[in-house]
Write a structure and sequence with these properties.
The protein is of the alpha+beta class and about 190 residues long. The chain has a domain of about 120 residues: Jelly Rolls. Helix content is about 50%, strand content about 25%. It contains 9 helices and 8 strands. Strands 1-8-3-6 form a 4-stranded antiparallel β-sheet. The model has no long low-confidence stretch (mean pLDDT about 95). It holds the Pfam family cNMP_binding. This is Crp/Fnr family transcriptional regulator. It comes from Fulvivirga marina. InterPro entries: cNMP-bd_dom, cNMP-bd_dom_sf, RmlC-like_jellyroll.
């Protein structure tokens, strides 16, 4: 477990250095969790008590429309953070599912513990601000890509920016993420 916790420390310290004492305190607020393939971290209509940092594995965040069609907002793999952030931050019911595509391992933290760490340790407040900003930028780029890029351009961008992801995700899920049919995806 210590080795896995050290991965989290390395991740945090890419943006915010912590003393050993600070790290001991910070790490005490995280819980290790393992989920099996197809197990949900977050389900629509349920409370979202945690944000998850992915140690190992792959997840998808998605919603389902009235016709039962899945719309994938995000894939998350090692070193990513994932949750339904509106529900997590505002303590309301989830509007997204987060499901494991592979057996996965996480460190989770509650919103209360996260806010406590941010109040008490300046480096954690800085880390949280930077990660939130980077997440917002990534989401903005994804939305803009869907507005102004063709499906083929979106696919090529995904191939160049996240080649490892394309190898791990079934084509049906990639098609949903890109907003195209599986048949269209097979033509690229």
């Amino acid at each position: 477990m210590e080795e896995k916790l050290n991965l989290l420390r390395i991740h945090i310290e890419k943006m915010a250095k912590l003393t050993d004492d600070e790290w001991a305190y910070v790490s005490s607020h995280f819980k290790y969790r393992a989920f099996k393939k197809h197990q949900y971290l977050v389900q629509i209509g349920q409370p979202v008590p945690s944000e998850f940092w992915i140690v190992k594995g792959l997840v998808k965040s998605f919603a389902v429309d009235s016709d039962g069609k899945e719309h994938i907002l995000q894939f998350g793999m090692e070193d990513y953070w994932v949750s339904d952030y509106n529900a997590y931050q505002n303590k309301v019911s989830a509007t997204l599912h987060v499901d494991c595509i592979e057996n996965s391992e996480f460190f989770s933290i509650s919103i209360d513990d996260k806010e406590k760490l941010c109040r008490e340790i300046k480096a954690m407040a800085n880390f949280s601000r930077l990660k939130t900003t980077h997440g917002f930028i990534a989401l903005q780029q994804r939305v803009m890509s869907h507005l102004i890029s063709s499906a083929e351009e979106r696919y090529n961008s995904l191939l160049s920016n996240q080649p490892g992801l394309v190898q791990r995700v079934p084509k049906k899920l990639l098609a949903s993420y890109l907003g195209v049919s599986r048949e269209t995806l097979s033509r690229f």
